[in-house]
Design a protein that fits this description.
Blueprint lengths: L14 H5 L11 H30 L8 H22 L13 H25 L4 H8 L2 H13 L5 H18 L7 H26 L7 H22 L2 H41 L2 H23 L5 H38 L9
Keywords: Membrane, Transmembrane, Transmembrane helix
Protein name: Sugar phosphate transporter domain-containing protein
Subcellular location: Membrane
Length: about 350
Amino acid sequence: RSEDHCTPAPRHAPPHAMNGAPPKQADGPSEGFWYTTGVIALLLVVCAESVAFSNYNKYVFLPENLPAPVLYTATCQTLSFCGAVLIWLLAPEWIYKRAPLNSTASFLKVMLIPVGFVMNYGMNNLSLKYTTVTLNQLIRSFSPVVVATTSYLIEGKTQSWPILITLCLLVVGVIMGVGTSPDFEVLGTMICSGSLIGNAISIVMTAFVMGDAKVKLQPIDVMLYTTIPSVIILLPWSLTLGEIETLRRSLEENGSFWTMAWILIGGFLACTYTFIYVLLIKMTSSVYFSVSGGFRTIAAITVSFFIFKQQVSVKSLIGMGIAMSAFIANSYFTLKEKVEEMDKRSQLEMKKPLLGDKQA
């Protein structure tokens, strides 16, 4: 058989290849525009849910309601797992297809996420039992620094100078905003401080495994693989704190309807919040998500002043303004860098030969 039959028919070169003119860009919004729009939309949703979740949890953990934060966190994780399983079973493959863990290394990487989660949300929720929302958020304001350091140690990621400067201003603003709290409490402060380490591990490892060339996990994968291990760690801890007795007392005093309603509402918030924040980490970075926490911190504190009647000063208002300005600047620089990376990838794709680097 002649090789001419196997040779593809030659294609005519596009007009711009003949005269050296650059290719004409496609009409309509660019990929960077849709990316930025998606990130902003997710950010608004995750901020709203974070504010609702923080203040809702503080309300649930009041002594007269359900002061069992570790058991409550375990039930929220269980309900998140149920939601992920439903999506896995019902969603068509073009929407979601489970990514298997094919190696021990991948499994061990993923298992660090529930360890970080327990240290993060378990200890954070427990600290809300002893501290105010304001003091809790003051301590959590150091999260961007811890996450940036952990991201450098685990992923080797470094930040540009504009992002580093805005990150420092964010921390200064948040500290000024909530530093007037008179509600210092040693035990709650120590527990909340410990949650920062878990927060960094959880966020950085989530970004790490979702960006790994071998693992390639989606947000639902993270929920499927990490929620039950978190529950296994949380339940013994809850038993040692005597929270089963607390649950029984709440059922007797508040009734099964309200007790179960608090748990189910918390589970719904946990499921949707986990999915959205994992998706936001996937679209941006672990450091950016932690920095966005500064904005969520200010919003949560502002709402808590109206709900729990906490005091505010002029210094606090100035600090909140600095934090919000730093967050907006950080968002601008982060999204600018991401869009520039996407534009570079698009230009490289356009420069590739039509038939690839190798001829048949």
